[in-house]
Amino acid sequence: MFMAGAAWELISRYFMRHLPLYVALILLFTTGLGFGALATQKLSPMQKEDLANYTAAVYASLAENGSERTERAQAFLQSIQDNVIKTAGLVFLLGLTVIGAPLILAVVFARGFVLGFTVGFLVQDAAVKGLVLSTTCILPHNALVIPALLLGAEGALSFAGSAFRTLTGLSRESVQGQLATTALLAICSGLLFVAAAFVETYITPVLVQLGRGFLT
Predict the structure, then answer these.
(1) Is 21 exposed, middle or buried (0-12, 13-18, 19+ CB in 10 A)?
(2) List of residues 6+ apart from 8 with CB closer than 8 A
(3) SS (H, E, C) 83-125
(4) Cβ-proximal residues to 21 (8 Å cutoff; 6+ apart), any chain
(5) Which of 68, 76, 82, 93 is deepest in the core (most CB within 10 A)?
């Protein structure tokens, strides 16, 4: 009990100390959401039609009950590759390079933009149906993806900032402790991405099926 209390206090103290950076990342992600939603207004009628057809095909595929286990497993592994390796791993490596830290901000903004564009298009194109689709298909796994992204990005940016101050002589603080914290946050980020991949692959199709039942 004492160990758990001490760990919780340590975690709370860390997040409170880094709260401004988390707030900045949330604002950046939210800005990406807004720009993504606005970008849907610039689509031509032909582009909207193509996207609507593609969305309908994906929706129908997700709603099928008879998906093979091998296909689900492949989709799960692909999601892990895209999120854990290409996102969490990339963000961690960019933080380690220090000079690549600004690109972390671009990754956060881009993920927000894509999510905002997707939800904005669905709601604009299909109104109530699009809202139900966003709730059942987009929201569940992104409820884990967003914290995962913010955890990894904050840890990488904190390490890059500490390393930069040490390299320029502005601080004598050792970066080893921050590196360990960053690695731990990267692991937590990766685990959240894995959980998000599981939700997207195995739970989202069930929710989509329920959503279709609600609309019919």
Answers:
(1) middle
(2) none
(3) HHHHHHHHHHHHHHHCCCHHHHHHHHHHHHHHHHHHHHHHHHH
(4) 154, 157, 158
(5) 76
The tokens describing 98, both together, are: 């220090």
* Torsion region of 127: left, alpha or beta (phi above 0 gives left; psi -120 to 50 gives alpha): left
pLDDT digits (tens, 9 = 90+) for 139-159: 899 999 999 999 999 999 999
Backbone dihedral angles phi then psi of residue 46, each to the nearest 5 degrees: -65, -40
Residue whose entry in the numeric block shows the structure tokens 């998906």: 67
Residue entry with tokens 């002589």: 169
Nearest 5°: the CA angle 142, 148, 153 is 125
Q: Are 176 and 142 in contact (CB under 8 A)?
A: no
- The kind and range of the H/E element at 100 are none
The pTM of the full predicted model, rounded to 2 decimals, is 0.86
Residues in Cβ contact with 158 at an 8 Å cutoff, skipping those fewer than 6 apart: 18, 21, 95, 178, 181, 182
Find the helix or strand (DSSP H, E) in which 129 lies: helix 128-133
Residue ranges per structural domain of the chain: 23-57+69-215
Which residue type occupies 102? P
Q: 174-190 as b/e, with b when 16 or more CB fall inside 10 Å?
A: ebeebbebbeebbebbb
Count of beta carbons in the 10 Å neighbourhood of residue 116: 22
Q: Can you tell me the distance from the alpha carbon of 121 to that of 130, in angstroms, rounded to the nearest whole number?
A: 8
